[in-house]
Q: What sequence folds into this?
């Protein structure tokens, strides 16, 4: 499988020259000869689902935004990859920036956007320099600007450097942040596709989603859908970390099983230890037990195993991992990142982490585990955005799948 | 309006399309608990108390942020909903202190009420409470951060509705707190709107701190005594004393909005210099007298003057602060008992100009403002007026209009609050608004942008056209300091807007506008074929329009104010002043003092022992606005009731009643003996207002300064209104005084450098009429060669420097400043 | 005289880059830095402060010459970053979010910096270091004088 990371194997993949030599910007040229609506249709037919976490069909967003009569329209790339365990966008941002630029230019043409922003997380200063240079080079070569490839299409692209707020990965919070406000999610509807940046139609997609576009346009929806599964077509980047022999970013078809990823691609568990648990898609997805290895990693199958695909950032735990502590650390992360707008998230997640803290320090009470479940229930579905939900289902996942260990029963194993 | 029908708790209700469930429910009298919703703000969706069940919808929906749909079925109180609310309350109460026994909000605290309804008393987690110090360091507003539940209403009302942004969320997540930027003492305009919206006791009124439990007070709806907005303020009375003011949703034209004056200014009635008994001057001193004695004295003295010099030797000054009934009786007494038409008021220097402009231009005898007029225009042009200070709550509609997408252009020399909330600031030389308007009209005519058919049919069109010949963009640019392009663009954009509005204030103490500015505004309106009501000039005070309409102005041959007080010949022998303090609030106080000293009889009827009262032969104590029944007419023309909600002070009686008694003492019965009887007669008189046919006419209006700066007096003094005060009345409010208590002089850094003046030092301000001392404030908001002085403070004697003007010239005051 | 066009929306969008510039100049988000941004963009100071304090990377207090930002999220912890953090604390005699008395180093415990595949990892100033060990971390820091 080598589509999204294809160029990276070429020398100087970050440079325009290297990218073009390995076939880059051909799709843009092809796209500009197509009707914008045909590209939107192609993307919709392909069934491409957003790679950021929620898995919303990209073609649907594009269709709605392109049909909205308001102008101008904006295109935003969500490069605020901040969820622990997730580092799949980094190779594209740092080693293959032109793939993203090409994908965005095609998308902009399709939906009729003239301005684009890459909202890059503040913790990626190297990516910022690389992207900014790539953008300058693209302007010089005519892949960005007022008259792209001489075909009369105008698209300007800017990097907007975030400053360390996980919540800005939520699309309405990202728009607020871009407009110079505190990154708090806002009420939907109106959805960004109708009223987004500066109250104009705005499409926000993840880095990896845009990276899929050039290939999709090149080969067409039909060929694209042959990769992956019918409900989750296309290639997927999995970032694997934790107790595996070969952590890293792997490009595999959607639907590849956990077992294949961990044992074939990542070389199995470190030091020959036993697998204990896996978080499949970044820390906001519920933890899974070792007996779920045959689960295909895609949007449809993971929920059947009580979890979600999320961003595709796997964290693998071996038998020595202290899951209670992991659960605490994840909850503390959510507490730290909660924007503070909604009561259940602001107060509830803090309460969860206080309880976990006392459990970890041996001062827990017998009823604490039940209390965790109840507080989680009171957070779940009661907030504005998915951050509080994430904290709640994660705690629920730990308690449901590893209850004896969470209760601190000595020697307990899941 | 498109209506949507839905079912809430089994009841079929209708609401506007696009409304949220919460709005639809509240509109139909169904309460859904909420902690972060306010009708004036866009939905926030943070508190999560307003969750409801919607049929066919998985989980619960937040009513404040879910739009209604046709046929929607909503349940607001189900076991599931109650459980969810209880859970949210438990979370809020983790950190909210349970200090209700010492919290002034107790009894009207939303959190307390909701906890009472849904909450449990068990506590499953003892989280450490927040431990932030109480902040009592700023005037009138106290903050108790520990009680804050982060609903954000205060932040949003301050930023989005008031256009100030004094406080914000600081930090993120659980650690967020609400504070001014740097934990400094809160320093804002102190409107107190944040206190009203706070659902808990995190923000409170400092003047009300520990004054009373809420359940011991009666709340009375009253019309605010200050500006022409005519807001309703809800006054809480305990043991016969007003101790709190606040706004209430759905009450009054202001719908709960209040400025600091309406909220805190009520306590002027408790000022130390309130008059308690009549007084008569004996051997040079004012001494206590009975009513009978005082009235008899006035009747006899007045009678002998009339006999000796004729009724035309008596004059009277009415009050924009007294009720319609009081003013009606004053003029009735003067006309029928005394027989004089010499009746006027301070409005001569203020609203009279607007009235005259409307009369000359439109043939109209009554042109109240439209409360919502700013919301109906796409382009609002404000000429040299900080409407957000002079008419603070009406001013909110200008900010709202801009927030809704209208273009708000403000021509002003100073960076006012309205300027800060505008779309465009046209920074001109003070007093040159009339030239700017003329310049705009010149461009509009030259470029053919006007409504030719309508405009050319209006009387005097050619006179207007030729009067504008000297107002070329180049000439106007030289006068106003605004670039030629800006003048052209303004003219083009204004004339091409879909709907338009020109607005300005007409304060008696303002000296940057004149009759001509208002005439020029009217000319612009007519030139573009707009309706006369697109010129909005509000009457200044709580009953300016009522007083004016009740007949407090010469009807025939009577003397106007200039003749009464500033004329050289001493034809006036007796002056009767009701509720006015000319030697402080009128221009050129030396002249006024001279005239008053020359009176054979000076009667002052007031609620305070003012400086003018101290000069009187007889002083009569009147009831304040909260101690009598009557009506005020707001700038928008609404006749609204004031009521006796507290006992009169000492032996004071209502002004109208003084005239009833005095006329009887003079042997004349005016035939009206109660408010009801007076009201009946007044309303007959008022019912004819605004009924005449309009007759349009252009009135060429030139730009001229009455007095210009010179080498001796190189600076121009601009007298200004500030938001926290209204006339001189508000300076007697201890509450408002705690916000701004003294006059000052603002000047630019360049002038400070030039005249060697240090910030906050005292400066001597000298005009050809006199000199005063003021504290200097160096401000970037002020242009060079100009000084700004607020006019509200009696002791500052700013009117020592000024002079009266009622016609077309701009009465700016040339002054010189030097370190004191 | 001047004509000022006011468009707060557009001005606010400049807040993030303006604050970064101010932080570069002042070293941290001092009240002076925030006030200068408020003045430059003509925004209420509370708006600027509210924005700046929402984002972790705007520093709430002065920092040393070199800022060690060690990731302490899940994967890095699994790979021993907690031990590294306490080693650094011991060596410099400071707790996380403190600065050495000589002003040379500040120690910051970071949330995920996107280096889970090469954990544990840190960012020193703007330089990225991965696969840290107890040995390598000190030799790396030797390069920061």
A:
């Amino acid at each position: 499988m080598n589509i999204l990371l294809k160029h990276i194997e070429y020398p100087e993949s970050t440079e325009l020259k290297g990218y073009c030599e390995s076939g880059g910007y051909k799709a843009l040229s092809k796209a500009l000869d197509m009707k914008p609506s045909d590209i939107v249709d192609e993307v919709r037919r392909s069934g491409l689902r957003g790679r950021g976490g929620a898995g919303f069909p990209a073609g649907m967003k594009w269709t709605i935004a392109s049909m909205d009569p308001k102008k101008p329209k904006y295109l935003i790339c969500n490069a605020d990859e901040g969820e622990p365990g997730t580092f799949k966008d980094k190779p594209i941002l740092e080693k293959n920036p032109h793939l993203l630029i090409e994908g965005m230019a095609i998308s902009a043409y399709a939906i009729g956007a003239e301005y684009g922003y890459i909202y890059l997380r503040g913790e990626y200063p190297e990516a910022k320099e690389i992207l900014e240079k790539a953008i300058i080079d693209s302007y010089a070569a005519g892949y960005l600007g007022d008259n792209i490839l001489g075909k009369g299409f105008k698209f300007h692209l800017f990097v907007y450097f975030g400053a360390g707020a996980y919540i800005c990965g939520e699309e309405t919070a990202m728009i607020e942040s871009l407009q110079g406000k505190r990154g708090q999610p806002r009420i939907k509807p109106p959805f960004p596709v109708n009223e987004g940046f500066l109250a104009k139609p705005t499409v926000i997609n993840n880095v990896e989603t845009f990276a899929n576009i050039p290939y999709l346009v090149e080969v067409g929806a039909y060929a694209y859908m042959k990769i992956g599964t019918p409900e989750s077509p296309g290639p997927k980047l999995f970032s694997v970390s934790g107790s595996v022999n070969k952590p890293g970013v792997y490009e595999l078809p959607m639907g590849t099983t956990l077992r294949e990823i961990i044992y074939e691609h990542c070389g199995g568990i470190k030091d020959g230890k036993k697998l204990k648990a896996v978080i499949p898609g970044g820390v906001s997805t519920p933890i899974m037990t070792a007996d779920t290895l045959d689960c295909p990693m895609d949007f449809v199958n993971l929920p059947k195993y009580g979890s979600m695909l999320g961003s595709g950032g796997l964290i693998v735990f071996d038998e020595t991992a202290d899951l209670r502590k992991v659960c605490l650390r994840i909850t503390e992360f959510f507490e730290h990142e909660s924007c503070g707008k909604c009561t259940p998230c602001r107060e509830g997640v803090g309460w969860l982490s206080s309880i976990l803290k006392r459990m970890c320090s041996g001062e827990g009470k017998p009823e604490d585990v039940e209390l965790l479940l109840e507080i989680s229930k009171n957070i779940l579905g009661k907030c504005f955005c998915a951050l509080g939900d994430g904290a709640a289902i994660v705690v629920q996942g730990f308690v449901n799948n590893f209850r004896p260990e969470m209760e601190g029963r000595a020697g307990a194993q899941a | 309006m498109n209506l949507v029908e839905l079912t809430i708790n089994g009841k079929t209700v209708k609401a506007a399309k696009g409304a949220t469930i919460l709005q639809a429910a509240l509109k139909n009298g169904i309460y859904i608990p909420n902690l972060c919703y306010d009708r004036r703000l866009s939905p926030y969706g943070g508190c999560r108390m307003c969750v409801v069940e919607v049929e066919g919808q998985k989980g619960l929906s937040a009513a404040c942020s879910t739009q209604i749909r046709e046929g929607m079925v909503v349940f607001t109180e189900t076991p599931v909903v109650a459980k969810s609310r209880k859970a949210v309350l438990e979370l809020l109460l983790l950190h909210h202190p349970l200090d209700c026994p010492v919290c002034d909000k107790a009894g009207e605290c939303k959190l307390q009420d909701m906890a009472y309804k849904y909450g449990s008393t068990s506590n499953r987690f003892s989280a450490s409470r927040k431990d932030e110090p109480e902040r009592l360091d700023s005037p009138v507003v106290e903050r108790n951060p520990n009680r804050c539940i982060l609903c954000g209403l205060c932040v949003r009302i301050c930023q989005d509705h008031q256009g100030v942004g004094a406080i914000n969320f600081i930090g993120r997540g659980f650690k967020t707190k609400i504070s001014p930027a740097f934990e400094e003492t809160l320093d804002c305009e102190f409107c107190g709107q944040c206190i009203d919206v706070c659902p808990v006791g995190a923000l409170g009124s400092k003047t009300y701190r520990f004054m009373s439990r809420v359940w011991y007070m009666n709340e009375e709806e009253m019309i605010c005594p200050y500006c022409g907005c005519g807001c309703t303020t809800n006054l809480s009375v305990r043991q016969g004393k007003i101790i709190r003011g606040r706004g209430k949703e759905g009450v009054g034209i202001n719908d709960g909005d209040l400025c600091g004056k309406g909220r805190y200014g009520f306590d002027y009635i408790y000022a130390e210099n309130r008059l308690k008994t009549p007084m008569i001057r004996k051997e040079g001193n004012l001494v206590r007298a009975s009513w009978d004695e005082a009235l008899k004295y006035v009747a006899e003295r007045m009678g002998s003057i009339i006999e000796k010099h004729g009724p035309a030797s008596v004059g009277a000054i009415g009050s924009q602060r007294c009720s319609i009934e009081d003013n009606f009786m004053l003029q009735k007494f003067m006309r029928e008992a005394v027989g004089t038409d010499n009746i006027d008021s301070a409005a001569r220097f203020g609203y009279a100009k607007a009235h005259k402009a409307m009369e000359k231009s439109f043939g109209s005898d009554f042109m109240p403002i439209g409360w919502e007029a700013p919301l109906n225009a796409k382009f609002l042009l404000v000429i040299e007026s900080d409407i957000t200070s002079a008419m603070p709550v009406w001013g909110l509609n200008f900010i709202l209009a801009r927030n809704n997408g209208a273009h708000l252009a403000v021509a002003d020399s100073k960076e006012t609050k309205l300027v800060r909330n505008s779309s465009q600031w046209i920074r001109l030389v003070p007093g040159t608004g009339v030239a700017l308007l003329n310049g705009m009209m010149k461009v509009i005519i030259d470029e053919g942008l006007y409504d030719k058919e309508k405009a050319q049919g209006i009387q005097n069109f050619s006179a207007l056209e030729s009067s504008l010949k000297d107002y070329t963009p180049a000439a106007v640019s030289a006068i106003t300091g605004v670039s030629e392009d800006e003048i052209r663009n303004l003219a083009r954009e204004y004339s091409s807007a879909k709907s338009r509005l020109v607005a300005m204030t007409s304060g008696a103490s303002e000296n940057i506008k004149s009759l001509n500015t208002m005439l020029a505004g009217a000319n612009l309106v007519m030139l573009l074929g707009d309706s006369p009501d697109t010129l909005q000039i509000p009457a200044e005070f709580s009953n300016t329009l009522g007083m004016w309409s009740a007949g407090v102005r010469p009807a025939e041959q009577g003397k106007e104010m200039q003749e009464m007080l500033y004329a050289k010949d001493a034809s006036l022998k007796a002056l009767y002043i009701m509720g006015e303090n000319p030697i402080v609030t009128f221009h050129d106080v030396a002249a006024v003092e001279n005239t008053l000293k020359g009176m054979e009889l000076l009667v002052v009827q007031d609620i305070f022992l003012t400086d003018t009262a101290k000069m009187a032969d007889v002083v009569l104590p009147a009831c304040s606005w909260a101690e009598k029944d009557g009506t005020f007419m707001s700038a928008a023309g609404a006749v609204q009731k004031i009521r006796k909600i507290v006992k009169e002070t000492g032996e004071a009686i209502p002004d109208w009643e003084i005239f009833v008694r005095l006329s009887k003492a003079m042997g004349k019965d005016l035939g009206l003996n109660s408010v009801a009887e007076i009201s009946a007669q007044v309303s007959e008189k008022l019912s004819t207002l605004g009924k005449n046919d309009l007759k349009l006419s252009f009135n060429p209006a030139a730009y001229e300064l009455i007095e210009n700066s010179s080498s001796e007096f190189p600076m121009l003094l601009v007298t200004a209104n500030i938001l926290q005060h209204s006339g001189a009345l508000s300076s007697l409010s201890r509450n408002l005084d705690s916000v701004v208590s003294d006059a000052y002089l603002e000047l630019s850094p360049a002038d400070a450098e030039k005249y060697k003046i240090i910030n906050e030092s005292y400066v001597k301000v000298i005009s050809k009429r006199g000199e005063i001392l003021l504290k200097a404030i160096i401000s970037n908001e002020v242009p060079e060669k100009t000084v700004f002085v607020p006019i509200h403070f009696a002791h500052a004697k700013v009117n020592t420097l000024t002079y009266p003007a009622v016609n077309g010239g701009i009465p700016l005051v040339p002054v010189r400043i030097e370190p004191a | 005289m001047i004509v000022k066009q006011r468009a707060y929306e557009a001005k606010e969008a400049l807040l993030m880059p303006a604050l970064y510039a101010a932080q570069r100049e002042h070293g941290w988000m001092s009240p002076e830095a925030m006030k200068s941004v408020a003045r430059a963009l003509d925004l209420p100071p509370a708006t600027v402060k509210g924005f700046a304090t929402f984002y972790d990377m705007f520093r709430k207090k002065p920092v040393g010459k070199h800022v060690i930002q060690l990731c302490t999220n899940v994967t890095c912890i699994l790979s021993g970053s907690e031990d590294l953090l306490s080693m650094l604390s011991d060596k410099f005699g400071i707790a996380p979010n403190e600065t050495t008395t000589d002003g040379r180093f500040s120690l910051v415990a970071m949330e995920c910096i996107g280096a889970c595949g090469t954990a544990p990892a840190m960012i020193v100033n703007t330089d990225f270091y991965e696969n840290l060990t107890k040995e390598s971390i000190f030799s790396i820091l030797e390069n920061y004088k």
